[in-house]
């Protein structure tokens, strides 16, 4: 099954994708993570993307589309994956649909994480990431056992540069102007589902599991098809 996660930054898409990967074996493909890795390693993609990311703007479509289509093509199991942070424009979504239809692996569900502005701002401002393994924490909602240290690998935690107040504002503006219209795009295809991103992670996961169970019993959406 192929799934797209939609919603503003801070809606909890990444958190749920990690849980779905651990519990249900989906491959989690996060555009933001892949881009950050490229920036860290100073690759050609990283060099082109860095300034856009730091300003909270979208990286140009052609760079992101090529990067993500290559990632999907090269993944060991192309069948069951979650796209987190991609597509982010209708143009990206159309390109993705074209490529996946050639591979006979269409997107089965798009899940919209409907989330209030208040939740999003609180989450982004308190978010911390592991500098080594990328694990996600929140200083209040999901603190590590030892302050500033990753539970999983012991490396130090850091705050993303684009989680600063000014850049958060810009990212939310970009979401409203360029990404929100994807909700209609997938709704028109009849594959849109909705969860409340305001709930705590365990509850969101229960709702997602239910959605997956329902879709799994529908012929159009069988896992692994
Ligand atoms: P995220 O980790 O999903 O919040 O993404 C971090 C940043 O990476 C975004 O603010 C954009 O600059 C860039 N980015 C991630 N996904 C995309 C995408 N699909 N298209 C363009 N830029 C993206």
Helix and strand content put the structural class at: alpha/beta
> What is the helix tally?
9
Report Rg.
17 Å
Strand count: 8
Strand order in the sheet with the most strands: 2-3-1-4-8
- By CATH, the superfamily comes out as P-loop containing nucleotide triphosphate hydrolases
User: Which CATH architecture is right?
Assistant: 3-Layer(aba) Sandwich
> What integer is the average pLDDT?
91
CATH top level is: Alpha Beta
Biggest sheet details: 5 strands, parallel
Q: Which range does the strand content fall in?
A: 5-15%
Helical fraction equals 40-55%
How many structural units, i.e. domains?
Answer: 1
SSE string:
EHEHHHEHEHEEEHHEH
Provide an overview of this structure.
With 225 residues, this protein is of the alpha/beta class. It has 9 helices and 8 strands. The chain has a 5-stranded parallel beta sheet, with helices on both faces. A 3-stranded antiparallel beta sheet has the order 6-5-7. The longest helix has 16 residues, at 201-216. The chain binds adenosine monophosphate (AMP).
